[in-house]
Design goal:
Length: 243
């Protein structure tokens, strides 16, 4: 666990190998399939209402992307790219098991005054690349009219305040669009990055990914004919709010 903590501090991302059993993953997959089926049934209804959601991504500049979103009784859904949905779970009846080793790593950084939420990221076959982004908004101020922003204090002066845990329900690789990370970008501004190329990790069933929400990353295109589904669980300081 100490190795994973040090990797989070240095690189902004770490892989925990063989955390979940195949049975754990099968149970999580069954829950995710139930949710996806429920969501898709609602989205195919003629009565479902959509709204435009402003999604902000930080990279060389801050960009505003207008995404289609849906509010359902149990879920908040954002269409992040073609063939890709972010399904936020707003349902206390649904419980997704989070391993104690994951919680121990989070508790190394947060011992009190934090919150969590979870959801599902889907990526259908032939889905598009996601956008380069940080998971956090720039808490140091707004960008100017040209999208230029200053997040130097956020990456240099702040202790970690946001972590995302990804539980892949299928093995991840370059073919099905494993998430791409720019290592070390959680503690550097865009202009300070010497290397702007990302790295993709291969994972096996039972592996999980933890990353600092300040790291630049993106989901890649799924070039296979098999959907790539991930469960995510976010932990963040109580004072942080995406909205």
């Amino acid at each position: 666990m100490e190795k994973n903590i040090e990797e989070l501090k240095k690189h902004g991302v770490t892989i925990l190998k063989s955390i979940y059993t195949k049975k754990n993953i099968e149970d999580l997959k069954a829950t995710a399939l139930f949710i996806e089926t429920d969501v898709n049934t609602s989205l195919n209804s003629d009565t479902i209402n959509s709204y435009n959601y402003n999604y902000y991504s930080l990279f060389d500049k801050e960009y505003t992307h207008e995404k289609k979103a849906y509010k359902l009784p149990k879920y908040n859904i954002i269409e992040v790219a073609k063939g890709r949905l972010d399904i936020g779970i707003d349902n206390e009846d649904i419980y997704l098991h989070i391993h104690l080793k994951i919680k121990s790593i989070i508790h190394h950084f947060f011992t009190k005054h934090y919150e969590s939420h979870m959801g599902i990221l889907t990526s259908n076959s032939s889905s598009d690349n996601g956008l380069w982004h940080r998971d956090v908004v720039n808490i140091c101020g707004e960008s100017d009219k040209n999208g230029n922003y200053d997040d130097s204090k956020m990456v240099h002066d702040f202790e970690p305040f946001y972590f995302n845990i990804l539980i892949p329900l299928v093995p991840l690789n370059k073919d099905n669009g494993s998430i791409e990370f720019i290592l070390g970008s959680h503690n550097k501004t865009y202009s300070e990055l010497n290397e702007k190329r990302g790295i993709q990790y291969n994972t096996d069933i039972g592996d999980i990914i933890i990353f600092d929400g300040r790291i630049f990353h993106r989901g890649r295109e799924n070039k296979t004919n098999i959907p790539r589904t991930l469960i995510y669980n976010v932990y963040h300081r109580s004072w942080y709010n995406d909205n």
